[in-house]
Structures are given as C-alpha cells and as structure tokens.
Amino acid sequence: MAELIEVTINGEKRKISTGKNINDLISDLKLNPTQPGIAVAIDDEVIVRKNWRVTGITAGQQIEIIRAVGGGIKNAEQEKAN
C-alpha cells in the first residue's frame, strides 16, 4: 500500500499517494492533462505544462487547478431554472 500525504487542492484538504507528479494528479482527478485550458499553480507559483511530469508533489503543498470553460459559467440556481 502506498504511503499517503496530505495536500490542499483548490481549497480542499486531500490525501494522495506519495510519488505523484502534476500530470498524475490531473489524471487522478479525471481530467485530461493534454486538454488545453488547464492551469496549475503550486504554492502560488504557476507550473508550465511542459514541467508537469517532472514536478513532484510533496506534503503540505497548496495546489490550484483551474480549467477554462467556454460559454460562461452557470451556477446551481441557473441550472435549476433550465
């Protein structure tokens, strides 16, 4: 069984397996790491896509994953109205 570390992803504390890189994490979150429009920052530093496979994740890091969405954003109330 892999050892777990705690990180914060988009403001939510989570436990993930040790030895992960950004590319692994994106895949684990059911996102496609080759999809355009995804940006990642660790501890307020943007990590360029070409470095995702070589940037390891360590305990205590603050990770922000942002995905650009075309056509605007609908909130829950707008969804109910449709």
Walk me through what this model shows.
The protein is of the alpha+beta class and 82 residues long. The protein has a single domain (4-69), classed as Roll (Ubiquitin-like (UB roll)), CATH 3.10.20. It has helices spanning 22-28, 76-81, and strands at residues 4-9, 12-17, 38-42, 45-47, 62-67.
Give the topology.
Blueprint: E1 4-9, E2 12-17, H1 22-28, E3 38-42, E4 45-47, E5 62-67, H2 76-81
Parallel strand pairs: 1-5
Antiparallel strand pairs: 1-2, 3-4, 3-5
Task: Kindly list the characteristics that best describe this protein.
5-stranded mixed β-sheet; alpha+beta; 5 strands; globular; 82 residues; Ubiquitin-like (UB roll); single chain
Task: Provide a compact summary of the structure.
This protein is of the alpha+beta class.
Question: Averaging pLDDT over every residue, what do you get?
Answer: 88
Give the full name of the CATH homologous superfamily: Beta-grasp domain
Question: Tally of extended strands?
Answer: 5
Strand order of the largest sheet: 2-1-5-3-4
In CATH, the topology is named Ubiquitin-like (UB roll)
Q: Which descriptor suits the 3D outline?
A: globular
